[in-house]
Amino acid sequence: MSSIPAERLLDIRGLRTHFFTDSGVIRAVDGVDLWVDRREILGVVGESGCGKTMMARSILRIVPKPGRVVAGRIELEGKDLLGLSGAQMRRVRGDAISMIFQEPMVSLNPVYRVGNQIEEILSTHRRALRRAERRERVMELLRMVDIPSPERRVRSYPHELSGGMRQRVVIAMALACGNPRLVIADEPTTALDVTIQAQILDLFKKLQQDLGMSVIMITHDLGVVSETANRVAVMYAGSVVEQAAVRALFETPLHPYTRGLLRSLPRRGRDSRKGRLHTIAGTVPNLLDLPPGCKFFDRCPHALADVCRGTEPALEEAANGHWVRCCRVREIEHEGDPA
Amino acid sequence: MGAYLVRRILAFIPTLLISVTLIFILTRLVPGNPVWALVGHQSVSEEKIKEVSHELGLDRPVLVQYLTWLPKALSGDFGSSIFFNRPVVAVIADRFPVTLTLAGLAMLLTLALAIPLGIFAATRQNSLVDHATSVFSTLGVSLPSFWLGFLLIILFAVTLHWFPSSGYRPLSMGIVPWLSRLVLPVIALALSQVALLVRTTRSSMLEVLGMEYVTAARAKGLSEAKVIYKHALRNAFISIITVIGLTFALSLGGSVIIENVFAIPGLGQLITTAAIRRDYPVIEGGMMYLTVISLAVNLLVDISYTLINPRVVYE
Amino acid sequence: MSESAAPARPRNSELRRVLRSRLFIAGAIIMLLIFSSAAAAPLLTRYDPVTLDTKHSLLPMSLQHPFGTDELGRDVFARVLYGARISLRVGGLSTLFTAILGVLLGLLAGYYKPVDMVVSRLVDGLMIFPGLILGIMLMAALGPAESNVILAMTILYTPRIIRVVRGSVLELKSMDFIDAARVVGAGDLRILFGHILSNAYAPLIVQVTFGFAWAILTESGMSFLGLGTPPPAPSWGNIIADGRDFIRSAPWLMLFPGASISLAVIGLNFIGDGLRDLLDPRLRNTARRIGTSVG
For residue B229, what are the contacts with CB-CB under 8 A and spacing of at least 6? Predict the structure, then answer.
């Protein structure tokens, strides 16, 4: 899928979100630079613990205590979200930027009917609407997400709906105000059965095209990313290590971590007889105790102590639109990977 | 809903029967006592004992006694009090409203204090208020209520003369006399309940505030007040409601001691003196009364629970 | 899913965690204090808790009588010290019996449906009576004696333990590791006591600790009403009951025994709270929203 070059919608620079616990400071997000253009789907991939969810929460400024954003800029159409007051930020949430959480069974309040939960977004952000208009809008939304018999479903409680339908409700909530600039979808299909996954993804893509919104799709599933996203950002231990168009990333990954990830995907066909699955040696560093310098140093097959250990590399444009955070990116391209 | 109600009521019947049977076992099967209670501890002839036993129906086999007693007990007929020479029901009817007032006011005070405090402590975790609340609640459940009652009397009645130290005046004699004699006992009774309910509210709220749907509500742009009072609180109440029911039961139990300390002529006091004096009909009647009240409160809690938690009815 | 490279925790860190819990330590110190005072009573005072000395009645606090004397001339300090023995003995024994009986019945009720039918009904029936009331009635039926107090309190609290244990059993018995044990050929007894109990002990211990606190409060309450440990035994509740007539003239008579009850109960509640904090997080997910699972 080619990306349509357009103006920048969201620009995140140097984001750091730390958790101040009794055991120490957990640097959950520690140097995130990423951006999303209009009408674009940006996939954010990384393993559990890499900070992608906290990054998403930082954008909306709903980081749970004892965490908080300690540095960085998050610009939405040029305006720094981190500088907004509480009331201003609340106006952004659910309207200009909305979020879809991972598990709809737990992100929907179990004691209120789903219609009520959608409607309250309207009563918060679209005060001018009268009750009947709100109700009508809710029905419209349910139809838009392909929920059958909406007039019945609107009075249902979350536990009365199937997993797929709950996810549709959650999507409807994200679109309630009509014109979100950005929708952040945090693992939107992870909790669903495979067949439903495909349906939901299709719905999502359709809505994105129709409404023209940008999407940040957080997932650990590379398959979802390759099918849905225009561009991809790869996160590791709290930083973005690589960011590129989907095709470019999958065909020519530049960061050793990305290369390791892609090589560890099981293959079919000719290569399946090659034997063992490739893995990346070592484990993710403890976020309480991050080493200075490159975070991937301990596990990188291309690491050179004198070059890579000292300072943390910056995210740089290695090729057109392809950004990498690696000191030795040029040499690695030539070196190739160990067998 | 109606079917659910009926089912719940039916479920209480075995419990009621067990409780009633327990009451019977405790009073009737201890040998000799009722007779002594009636005739006193003077030396009595065998004849007299036999006579009294026969009157009380104690010479018949136990099962027969039980079966004759049971329908009467269930319909509220416990005979006459040995000491008051009045029907038990009448004696209880005199006392019960007093206990109900005491327990009811204590409950109101508890709810009014504990829930806001618990919410406050949960939303401001680790603040001064939170820690103070924790300390207070541990103290509150640890102090014996009778001691607390006396401390209150010493401070407010004896030293400061703000309130009378004991007694009871019905509402008919005026609001001020009625209320002024209830302030100290209600506080003494409510304190441990407040302590317990604050803890429950706080931990329930904390648990709910950590739930994903609360974060999701914030992500929708709702005000913090809406997030806490509309989304979090209702879910927290699911646990809190059960404890509220428990609180009322504790009030009834605790009133026994408080009525003693403050010389309030309520049901608790009645049962205590009846126990000391072995006035068995009164003991039985009082226990039965309390059992029924307890069951009613449990039922109310169940109903409220289904109203709050839409998942329950479908069990 | 990758995990952070933290070193495996050594065994004695468990002990270190226990020692770091301030609640637990505070409670343990308090109880140690009370226990040793009770044990060392004859060393700490030369007075006898029951000997009358009407010539020296109602004396205020002094060096000779740290807590003063009561209306019959008995030294209150001595009474309070020996009263600690009663509270600990009666409370401790009833808690012990409650624990044994409660665990047994709870395990059986949770595991075997027919047992459950009977036991649960009994438990429900008993728990309907508000607190003290059943105790009063039991004492009225049984008669005044310390052993009866122990019996009555056991009857009163066992239902709660049964409920806790039963709940744990119900939760655990459908878990896979029980099936795994059965497949290997473990008999019911081994499963119950070996597998289930070893996983269910945490809430049980906490509840038993609180039960001890409850027992001390209840015994003193019943004694205060005249339906507990029979006088002239210096149960703290009795001492307060004796002192109530002198609330204006000699308020100290009630002050000290009441403070002792409060102290003991606070101590036990601290231990219970501390245990609950210590034991609970280990059973659940240690890393909640943050920590190792940030992603």
Answer: none
